Amino acid sequence: MRPLPDALHDELRAALRRALHDVPPRGDVHDLLGRLGLHGLEIAPAAGGLGLGLSYGVVVAEELGRAAACDTYRSGCLAAETGPTAAADVAAGARPPAVAPPPAGDALVRARIRQAGYLVGLAAGAHELAVRRSGERRQFGRPIAAFQATGFTLAADLVQIEEARLLTAYAAWLADRDTAGIPEAAADEPRGWPPADGEPELAAIQALAAAAEAATGVTRRALHLHGTYGLTGDAAIQHYYRLAGTEATSLGRPAALWRAAGHRRLTAGPDTEHTTAVLAAAGKDER
């Protein structure tokens, strides 16, 4: 398992994107996910699931966010991990309870990573709408996409989305690295990545903070590029903006998450193992 997408990630993303193409914003996709067999994607095979791991679950969460869908995938995974609904029932398509106890421990780590994936998807979906609208909306006889201020904004937003996506993928890889049933995860660490011991919690915090900032910032700027039309009920962008406002703080506000990440780094002490590995690799490269 690699922290970067493989062929199965890409196939899953493409299939889900096709299935969600005609789903309206805030549409209920529970039955659709059931027909695709995705409710048990992360659940162990012994409970009737596929056991593919969180890195694939993040792809599902991101595509659901891209469609601004009201899904039960994230809440279903959480219910299976924390106990309100049996894992086998979730894999079979049972709807999770509307209200669940707040997650803690490993369940909180995994919930934050899925949430980060959903927020990345919201940002990406809003960015696509902004690009399309900037080519249609005209000022001074030209599409607003022709103006540098618009183009630079869209380019900077794309960089922020990709940054959050990579952080989320890395956090999911760390969370899966020692998961039972995925034995290759620990042995497939690519050169140059930091060691995973004790890092999933920190990576989840950073991924969620970055994704929340990307979602709120990108959707706000995308709404601005739509002009007054973006505020109307006919504009899809307003759904992304509203969802980002609520989803970005459901498992911690970005400022509080960054403070928590900083505290963990300051109290963890120097990462001597990683530093030694980097210096050794640099010495080999110089030779």
Q: Please give the share of residues in helix.
A: 55-70%
Shape by Cα distribution: globular
How many domain modules? 1
**What order do the helices and strands follow?**
HHHHHHEEHHHHHH
Could you give the order of strands across the largest sheet? 1-2
Low-confidence stretches: 180-187, 190-196
Strand content: under 5%
Structural class estimated from helices and strands: mainly alpha
C-alpha Rg, in Å? 20 Å
Domain Acyl-CoA dehydrogenase/oxidase N-terminal: 22-69
Protein name: Acyl-CoA dehydrogenase
Cofactor: FAD
Organism: Plantactinospora mayteni
Structural account:
The protein has 287 residues and is mainly alpha-helical. The chain has a single domain, classed as Butyryl-CoA Dehydrogenase, subunit A, domain 3. Helix content is 63%, strand content 1%. The chain has 12 helices and 2 strands. A two-stranded antiparallel sheet has the order 1-2. A hairpin with a 2-residue loop joins strand 1 and strand 2. Helix 1 runs parallel beside helix 3, helix 6 runs parallel beside helix 9 and helix 6 runs antiparallel to helix 10. The longest helix is centred in the middle third of the chain and has 32 residues. The two termini are 30 Å apart. About 5% of the residues have low confidence. Belongs to the acyl-CoA dehydrogenase family. It holds the Pfam family Acyl-CoA_dh_N.
